[in-house]
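Encode chain A's predicted structure.
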Amino acid sequence: MNKFRLVPVALAGVLLVIVVGLGYRSHSSSPGFAIRYEKRVGGKVVETIDRKVGANGDFEEIRQAPNAQPSRVVATQRAGARLVRSDQLTYLGKVKPVLFTEAELRRDKNFVRMERLLGYEVGVLKICASENECAYAYHAPALKGHLLRFTAGDTDIVAISVTTGEPDLRIPNLPLNQTMMETKPWRKQ
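Encoded structure for chain A:
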């Protein structure tokens, strides 16, 4: 399996944190929202993803695969991204800003086009590992640059609903484990 085919697999586990970056540009006029995604591999739904995003850009994501325990990631501008387990928080790293406005998307060297998904304008970026292996990221400026779709190979992560309104977001008060950042298992040593 080549490196590019591993990208959706590696990224799927931490879609927000590693792939999306998920723009932490705080705009008080932009309301909070929730997005529900389906992750499809070969056309089959293999996971649902529920993401809640506050007006300040903080977010929580819960991923649920059939016959598996849900996983939960929370992130704030102050604390970075953290994987929530029943007995501890695992620090995943800082969450970096991504493209936010339509103008920024259009200036990006990977920009392909603007289109609409679920009633939102999205800028489509095409990122290629080679001539025949490309991923497409559909960023919604009105939703703080969050993705409404990400496609690579036979993996398609697509938003199926967006609900506006300020969600209740809280980072649990649990011990913090920073081993993940020290070992960086998703990178070659």
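DSSP finds four helices and twelve strands in the chain.
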